[in-house]
Amino acid sequence: MTQTLDPSTATTETPDTAEPGPAERVDAWLAAFEAALRDGDGEAAAALFATECYWRDLISFTWNIKTVEGRDAVAGLVDATAATTAPSGFATTEPPEEADGVVTAWIGFETAAGRGNGLLRLKEEDGEDRAWTLLTALYELKGHEEPRGTHRPMGAEHGANKHRQTWKELRQEEAESLGSTTQPYVLVVGGGQGGIALGARLRQLGVPALVVDKHPRPGDQWRNRYKSLCLHDPVWYDHLPYLKFPDNWPVFAPKDKIGDWLEFYVRVMEVPYWSDTSVTSARWSEETGEWTVELERDGQPLTLRPTQLVFATGMSGKPRMPEVPGMDVFRGDVHHSSAHPGPDAYAGKKAVVIGSNNSAFDICGALWEHDADVTMVQRSSTHIVKSDSLMELGLGDLYSERALAAGVTTEKADLIFASLPYRILHTFQIPAYEAMAKKDKEFYDRLEASGFWHDWGDDGSGLFMKYLRRGSGYYIDVGSADLVANGDVKLAHGQIDHLTEDAVVLADGTELPADVVVFATGYNSMNGWVADLVDQETADRLGKCWGLGSETTKDPGPWEGEQRNMWKPTQVTNLWMHGGNLHQSRHYSLYLALQLKARYEGIDTPVYGLQEVHHTG
Amino acid sequence: MTQTLDPSTATTETPDTAEPGPAERVDAWLAAFEAALRDGDGEAAAALFATECYWRDLISFTWNIKTVEGRDAVAGLVDATAATTAPSGFATTEPPEEADGVVTAWIGFETAAGRGNGLLRLKEEDGEDRAWTLLTALYELKGHEEPRGTHRPMGAEHGANKHRQTWKELRQEEAESLGSTTQPYVLVVGGGQGGIALGARLRQLGVPALVVDKHPRPGDQWRNRYKSLCLHDPVWYDHLPYLKFPDNWPVFAPKDKIGDWLEFYVRVMEVPYWSDTSVTSARWSEETGEWTVELERDGQPLTLRPTQLVFATGMSGKPRMPEVPGMDVFRGDVHHSSAHPGPDAYAGKKAVVIGSNNSAFDICGALWEHDADVTMVQRSSTHIVKSDSLMELGLGDLYSERALAAGVTTEKADLIFASLPYRILHTFQIPAYEAMAKKDKEFYDRLEASGFWHDWGDDGSGLFMKYLRRGSGYYIDVGSADLVANGDVKLAHGQIDHLTEDAVVLADGTELPADVVVFATGYNSMNGWVADLVDQETADRLGKCWGLGSETTKDPGPWEGEQRNMWKPTQVTNLWMHGGNLHQSRHYSLYLALQLKARYEGIDTPVYGLQEVHHTG
């Protein structure tokens, strides 16, 4: 979801002059950087960075997800972390490339605890090569490498061993003991893509973990949504860890197909997973260093005592259902979009859909297709991009067949994406959306002529920044926007005042007759789950989740530099927030899993720059 | 399972002399070959082949799986097929390599019907470059390319369409109509790895097909085997089409884990699959051009009318259970290895296992591990290789992490493997087994000292040739051979004469006390299934399946050059045999699926060299 430096104009050739090539320049920089780190000399390290500079670290130096900005902050990070991190062995892992005055290099390095990779971008400043952006990311812990590839398990244990147990017997024994004679070190609450991806990684790392979910089967989180739902992100962006979708997988997978995939992923990855299980409360004991978690499994009460508690209850948190007067007198169906059953029952009926984002459009489109009379109520402006244009101009350089053909694997794409500092990410985004505005001008003209309130984000940076900042305010158009533009789906504006027996009444008195009202009104911050399951004090101490502090709509400052509380240590001991789309569930589950593994193994994990809380929800 | 020409010594460099390099030599050969084909000039084409030469075609010229040997046969193939095939566009797909006097080239080409790939090996003979081996293989039909990668389905159908059906609705509708209002074009009997891999390919190609299997769930074919079973082939050799095992998959997967994978695969590949379904009879009607197949599904009788009938009932065919006098008086348990429940019930009991191949060793080992008193009865000599040695010396060049690191993908490995002519395959195999004999000399010495009858195959060519020739006669040692060598598992020799109430009596009078007798006595030819479900006349007309006609033990001549009746047209109209290990199920399902697709689409498929039948079973 970003424009990157165009690799097609890049070159790895050394020019004919005696000037050092990109490889030499990067090698020299890395050597100087490593020396500064070895000396714990923050000032020397900072001098290697440009005046405008960003160092993003994913748990390799900071045991945190942290971006520092500017030389002083670089110096501070080095001074605080270099000694304990003991980084070494910085080297390029493939030939660096130069384009538009920026040398880009894939790098590898080690720390005392593990091995890392990253991406370095050098710019010339004052005649010297200086780091503009640096990404450092831990990918494995020494002595705890994942059993994959050449280190995969044997499966059949060779030799003859009295009373050996089979794989199936071991799995059964494990399942029977889990929660009774053995405790999970990590309890993951919520078994959607986030919980499942994390569960798979923890399994792979040998961390005793358990994922619990209220639904009868893994994948029901998707199956239970409105029936027309397909993924809005394309397949290349959506892979889970370890097992990629096959190349016959649809670009936009239907919800039930994703549901099936998740169910079998749980099985083949051997993720310990309890369906039909609800958490009713969780309480931390400083004394025992454990959570006491009360659950209901298949209706039976049960207590677990995990050391770490992960909320993977949906990045969007809890359905936001406004309190609207008259809901009790309304005679038709009324429900939140998350509970919308689909259009079948509403042919010939009058439907009013409150909201104008993804779910609202999907639901309006499906209702119209099934011959309902549909009105969308727009309460505030929405950003719309055409799915094709988003794929071509937004994602295509990183996540597409084109990207794969150019050698940009999912793993590389994730790191490139992670290497773009949040502070300036919008500047990479704006040109893509300007291009979309131009490409799809006819569509936008029609849409605005229909009276639809359309925006491109506060600073014109479009969809992905809205997602990162507020997690709402957009629709990826797969066809329904035309229905609004054409008037097939009627459009009303304003806030809901109340419901009558058979209508929605807006604040300006407009009355919209209705047999069914769908509140596609979004979700509250996910720390609402913490308030429910732990308590309000803990939720407040944790603070708001998601958002960057960009001081744009619904993302109040101050600037945080990273997504609040996601995938990293929080102000609440041994409580973690995990979630996001499939891309984030895939990529950031790695760092969350490694943080949990390190704690499980008793590896020292001094956290640098734990974020302060500025907003409670 | 073969030694190939060592690519590590290969070179693509053009020498300093004016001699043409490998690329020029291959290009020149391909141009001359294409010209001869264009002219339909068999003699000219044959002149481009060496005196000793082999051309293997996988349905691209012959609509058959066919190896022709020698120039005359090459000329015959060209004369008969060039005009209808209309081949063109022969070109290398990557730089050819030269090693040990052989130039090896990956090639691509087209025919009137489709696109092919292959592998060419040139040798110099009489100062000219001549083909020693040529593999030509169709991989797709023009106009019927698979929807994959850049052609993958969209999933979400963009736009707004009245009464659109969701993926789930379409799948349900399809499932409900299949077998009632719609008929499968192809009925695949048997839903193990063979039936499933073929079902996935047919699905992908848009051929209406149905896989039926008697077990309650896909994967039960594995789950129901003896509990200690793990795959004897390593993971790199075992991938199914389209979806590879993830890189954390065990080298030798336990049977229940493979069972889960197959079940998962059926679902995500959307293979139409009926569990709990048995075929009771099948009858071909020349008049209607259809099979009439009677089935029982969930106990209910049902008739299907497919055009094509595929037996994927297990390459090993039906369990071979000898008629032994006294079975009725024996008081203990007696069963075939395929029905062996595992060792748990037999601790402290006396077990006699008849046979000395894979299943016999696995079962003996598991019984010994569970404290049974075990005797193996060896009736004829067995070939044993240590699993590690087989992986290192037999498979490693093609199917291993090492091969992958060297760029030998599964797809390439399959083609390299397919390019080695069966006539000379043993010559590639013998050195690998000589190396194993040397490497594991201490083990073989001990084994033979124990009295075990050990062999290396009739010509010393080892395990894989035994597999191809007779499908039996070997054990891949994962530990149990030592139990025999050490005497932990007792060894007896000879044929079974009869059972008493509590013992097995051998022909020489030896009495082996027994609480349980396991007949690990192998399987009959798979055309026994045809006799059962169609009739004996049809089974006889079909003839023996499997084997090469090598005139070695259990593989009578005459020389066939290919595996009898497998994956190709047979003497019985619209009846096909599919099966083999996971490698064969993966690779040859492609050619069988394309043959079925071509017939479904009404593409002309003149079969060249349909094999005669020399043996009935």
Description:
The structure is a homodimer of 617-residue chains. In chain A, the strands form six sheets. In chain A, strands 1, 2, 3, 4, 5, 6 and 7 form a seven-stranded mixed β-sheet that branches. A five-stranded parallel β-sheet of chain A has the order 10-9-8-14-25, with helices on one face. The two termini of chain A are 27 Å apart. Chain A contains 18 helices and 25 strands. In chain A, strand 22 and strand 23 (511-513) form a beta hairpin. In chain A, 31% of the residues lie in helices and 23% in strands. Chain A is globular. The longest helix of chain A is centred in the last third of the chain and has 19 residues, at 582-600. The first copy, chain A, has 617 residues and is of the alpha/beta class. Chains A and B meet through helix 4, helix 7, helix 8 and helix 15 of A and helix 4, helix 7, helix 8 and helix 15 of B.
What's the alpha carbon Rg of chain A, rounded to whole Å?
26 Å
Largest interface: A-B, 61 and 62 residues
Strand content of chain A: 15-25%
What's the assembly state of these chains?
homodimer
Task: Note poorly predicted spans of chain A.
Answer: 1-15
Tally the helices of chain A: what do you get?
A: 18
Structure classification of chain A:
alpha/beta
Main sheet summary of chain A: 7 strands, mixed
> Average pLDDT of chain A, to the nearest integer?
94
- Report the helical percentage of chain A: 25-40%
The coarse silhouette of chain A is globular
User: What is the first-to-last residue Cα distance of chain A?
Assistant: 27 Å
